Amino acid sequence: MAPVGGFAVIGAGSDFKGKITVSVLITCIVAASSGLIFGYDIGISGGVTTMVPFLQKFFPSILRKAAEAKTNMYCVYDSQVLTSFTSSLYIAGLAASLVASRLATTLGRKNTMVLGGCTFLVGAAINGGAANIAMLILGRILLGFGVGFTNQATPVYLSEVAPPRWRGAFNTGFQFFIGIGVVAANCINYGTAKHSWGWRLSLGLAIVPAAIMTIGALLISDTPSSLVERGKLAQAKKSLAKVRGKGTDVEPELADLINSCAIAKAANQEPFVTIFERQYRPHLVMAVAIPFFQQVTGINIIAFYAPVLFQSVGFGSDSALIASIILGVVNLGSILVSTFVVDRYGRRFLFILGGIQMFVCQVAVACVLEATTGVSGTKHISKSYAILVLVLMCIYAAGFGWSWGPLSWLIPSEIFPMKIRPTGQSISVAVNFATTFVLSQTFLTILCHFKFGTFLFYAGWIAVMTIFVTFFLPETKGIPLDSMYTVWEQHWYWCRFVQKQPSQNLYDGN
């Protein structure tokens, strides 16, 4: 029994008793490691942009601005060229994610991840050897294509391979590896910041996580759903038997996958057309709203610019990098909490709890900054208040880590039927990148003009998204992917859009 927008639903459909096996564990860990490259890039960008040798070579105007005695602390890093370096990746990622749905269908989830890893590796090499801004931007664009491919394919891969009862836990692995990438990048930035060539090492070392996830992806098999979709039934049966464990009768689940695939192919309609049909309106709304809301929590912006932000509120260069590491470790720990509770208490509970926690922290940060730096932002913030800001940001990061962080990848990857699942995930990732691009391109300017009000801006969005989840997001805990239509049919609002499916076996989602 699972709550759906405040009501209970018993899902219909097939209850395939998948268990946690060594094979499914290793497969999902290897697949989730694709998150390393996204996390590493998020963490490395902000740190590199505070390194003096990097700024001297590419952005000398920022150093001149920082040297001015009366500079508003919020405006030191307000440079459109600098933000273009960070945000160019996201335009490329947006384009790649839309193409990736077709690739994931024709080449498979696994091969799309491999392609993403290889593209990211080339981009990392170009960035490490960059001699001018053009090379930097080119490298970032290639990184964007790599991240676009992997971010589309990996969450779908994890949702399709994981047993329904533990799908949430396995899918949070992707966000966990993003967190590992962020922490690793922050540690590397701290170690290289003192060297004139440190920025090259930080950017170039992105080839390491790219190589790890690419080699790993080559060693695992594709998902049974993807193999069935491409007509490779013998391989699909073998893959299914491997992940479900010895002694498990996989024939019913395989037959269900074949049936779902046959229905999808019989429709013979372009997925990007199908997804806009009225019956898929709830799915489409979630595919757009969830990633959009994830970004307007402000988390990635804070992760990109954490060293810049902490330097702006009174930390020295080294202290700012250490503060970023602390923030990353807290986020990482909270993702582990999510892994253990998401399939016990459900998605809605974590979304709402995390939303309240983040809202309170954002408002508190704004109040502290207003009280200590003044409306103009020219007053110096004391070390004790700077530490208070760090503590509040850590509590905020923890709230994100066990809610909107992992769940924003999980929900879009599990709500769509097979025929439009890659397309739905592509739209979700594209919205994520588009929102991230706009925010990363404008954050430093917003920080300069809104000052402490920037945090109230994000707090307002967090309030909106928490209310949205409370009323409109059904609980998907424990429901098999092929039975997910039941949560929409019995939701108080979305039931008016979906077509009633024939009743099948009762399934207890707990």
In percent, how much strand structure appears in the residues? under 5%
Q: State Rg.
A: 23 Å
Which strand order does the major sheet show? 1-2
Q: Count helical runs.
A: 23
Describe the main β-sheet briefly.
Answer: 2 strands, antiparallel
| Structural class based on helices, strands and sheet pairing | mainly alpha
Uncertain residue ranges: 1-15, 503-510
Q: Helices and strands, in N-to-C order? A: EEEHHHHHHHHHHHHHHHHHHHHHHHE
- Can you give the helix content as a percent range? over 70%
Report how far apart the termini are: 6 Å
How many beta-strand elements?
4
Overall pLDDT metric: 85
Would you mind describing this structure in some detail?
Residues 1-15 and 503-510 have low confidence and may be disordered. The strands form two sheets. A two-stranded antiparallel sheet has the order 1-2. It has helices spanning 22-32, 35-48, 52-58, 60-67, 80-106, 109-128, 133-161, 167-192, 198-204, 207-219, 224-229, 233-244, 251-267, 271-274, 281-295, 299-312, 317-345, 347-373, 383-401, 404-415, 421-450, 453-472, 485-489; strands at 2-4, 7-9, 11-12, 506-507. The protein has 23 helices and four strands. The radius of gyration is 23 Å and the shape is globular. The chain is mostly helical and 510 residues long. 73% of the residues lie in helices and 2% in strands.
